[in-house]
Structure formats: structure tokens, C-alpha cells
Amino acid sequence: MNIFRFAGDMTHLISILVLLLKIYATKSCSGVAFTPQLVCVIGYVLLNVWISLKTQELYAFVFLARYLDLFSDFISVYNTVMKLVFVGSSLAIVWCMRFHRAVKRSYDRELDTFRHYILVGLSFLLALLVHEKFSFQEILWAFSIYLEAVAILPQLVLLQRSGNVDNLTGQYVFFLGAYRAFYILNWIYRYFTEEHFSRWISCVSGLVQTALYADFFYYYFISWKDNAKLKLPA
């Protein structure tokens, strides 16, 4: 454990809390007795969830594959709690977007059409070919690392198609990107302070994942500097 990994874990946790807040706001707004005219004006703004279900399903795959050791290998209370939080929250988010009436109604399937199963298949194939040790657990770990590197793609494509990005969704993607950036600093720190640090798969995949956020970070910074609404080019 070091300050960079802790910061990464906290920004990852914040991204999940922001997403849950987004879903909660959608559920709360759906129960307010607006007039039909008012709903027509603000319903689209408040109730549309510019969150990709495909990305959330990919993250659920990532955490389920990575944390199969949850009940077999105990490292620390902190480690166990964070694993439970990431697995539980990812499954809860997928359930809400698939089965909760208000959230499901606001989810735009027409924009979220990325073929995410291709990413699953390619990541698993790559894990079979490139891994640190040929064992069931290590292959699943490599699979989760490769899949996490590209899991944000359906979300970024959805935001580009929608054009406008609401504040909570923008904050969610920003904190996800910041989490991975902190983890890169964590790997650099461990490389210089640990004698046998060899998680090169994590390092390479983390660089790829961070690069995918570069365009989003640019427009996020521009919108912050100009105090304007975040918009991505279509």
C-alpha cells in the first residue's frame, strides 16, 4: 500500500458513488408529480441516463473475474472490503439499469449499441496467449486487466453520440480516468521501491486505458477552464 494506490482506490470509489447518485437522482425524479407540460420540458434533461449499460456489464465481468480469490486469499480487511464494494456495486448498477422501472425507462438503448461481447472475447483470447503464469486464477486475472483497459469504450462512444454530457456523468468518467492515472503512479513507485515487482501486464494495460481517456480529459479541461457545459465532438 502507498499513497498513490490509496488515492486510486478512493477516486475509483468516488466514481462509483457519483454513478449511484446519478441513478438515485433518476429514481427520485421519476416519482415527482410533475405536470405533463413540465415533464415534457425537463424530463429529457433529468431522466435520461447517459450511462452505458455495456460498460457497466464489462466492469461486472472485470471484478468477478479478478476477485475470485475473495474467500480463499486474505490480504487485509481493507483489501477485502474494497473487493466486496467493487463487486457488489457493479452488480447492483447492472441490476438497476436492467430491471428497475425508472432507470430502465430512462436508459437509451438506441445510443448504447457498442458490441461489447467482442471486447470480452478478445480480452479472454489475449489472456490465454499472454499471461504471467499458466493457471486458472492467473488467466482470469490477466483477462480482467485486459478487459478493464477497454471497458470504458462503450461509455465514451455513447457520450460522443449524445453530444452533451451532463455534470454527474462527466464527473463519473473523470474520476474513473483519474483512478487509473493514480494507479500508473502506484506502479512506478513500486517499480523503484520493490525488488521483484513484475506486473508488467497491469502497467501496459493501464497505459492503454489512460490513453483512451485522453480525448475526454482534453474536453473536460476545456469545459472547466471556460466554465461551460461539457460537450464531446460527435
TrEMBL record:
Homology family: Belongs to the ERD2 family.
Entry's Gene Ontology molecular function annotations: ER retention sequence binding
Localization of this protein: Endoplasmic reticulum membrane
CC terms in the record's Gene Ontology section: endoplasmic reticulum membrane
UniProt xrefs under Pfam families: ER_lumen_recept
Residue runs in coiled coils: none
Alphabetical keyword list: Endoplasmic reticulum, ER-Golgi transport, Membrane, Protein transport, Receptor, Transmembrane, Transmembrane helix, Transport
Keyword Transmembrane helix: yes
Domain of life of the organism encoding this protein: Eukaryota
Membrane topology field: Multi-pass membrane protein
Name of this protein: ER lumen protein-retaining receptor
Classification via PANTHER family: ER LUMEN PROTEIN RETAINING RECEPTOR
Record keyword Disulfide bond present: no
